[in-house]
């Protein structure tokens, strides 16, 4: 029997992925003189890996991340005050097993969304279901559910995943309806699963965003007291992402080199050396003849 004859049987057993490595494994078995059991083990490992990769890709797609970000991509050295040990511990996802939540709080641009998505990515790799969304979009979606009688179905979407990530929480005050929806969402998720919340405001300022203080107390006390609090401090990463950032950086480097050369040269008059130092301190590109 040749490999072509095996194709329909493997597909019928839903083992079609084995066809991708079958020829390679046959050659390996021949070269290494593997027995039947050794060859079968290789093929089964290939199929398991293929299914795991396919499942991971499906979980990542359903998570709706803005970007595929991991902690490996995060520059902890840029802001030394960021609690890297605490964040790496959270990325082991033990808090999800315990149905705890995480509050990532800090100023604009320090990496809250990146870290939240990185933890979510780690959860997906562990086989957990994750959903990422902006808080405003979640509230808009639930609000639409009140209009077309689909609110319960829409709410179930946010209650279902093992980990829900609410990004940019509390950018503006909530309406009466939004406050009620948040109360329902938070109250249910505290019982059912974990939530990551990112916010520019500290939790103490969230209460005033609710029109109804009773709902605020009921929702936020549950969330805040069931969460790990991570405070991020430091500079914003975003200036480094500007299109002209690299060009400006290269210009500064070129200017520094020109400045150093001018200062070292014995042919540069003292007045010119003073001008170079002054312009360099102001960030002006200098040119020597």
Helix content: 40-55%
Tell me the CATH architecture of the largest domain. 3-Layer(aba) Sandwich
Which word captures the global form?
elongated
How much of the residues is beta strand, in percent? 5-15%
Please work out how many helical segments DSSP would assign.
12
Largest sheet: 5 strands, parallel
Structural domain tally:
3
CATH topology of the largest domain: Rossmann fold
CATH class of the largest domain: Alpha Beta
Describe the fold and architecture.
- The model is unreliable at 256-268 and 270-289 (pLDDT under 50).
- The longest helix is centred in the first third of the chain and has 28 residues, at 36-63.
- The chain has three domains: 3-61, no CATH class; 71-235, P-loop containing nucleotide triphosphate hydrolases (Rossmann fold, 3-Layer(aba) Sandwich); 242-281.
- It is built from twelve helices and five strands.
- Strands 2-3-4-1-5 form a five-stranded parallel sheet, sandwiched between helices.
- The termini are far apart.
- The chain has helices at 3-12, 22-32, 36-63, 84-90, 94-97, 112-125, 135-147, 151-159, 176-192, 213-224, 245-264, 270-281; strands at 101-105, 130-134, 163-167, 194-199, 227-231.
- β3, α9 and β4 (194-199) form a beta-alpha-beta unit.
- It is elongated.
- Helix content is 54%, strand content 9%.
- It is of the alpha/beta class and 289 residues long.
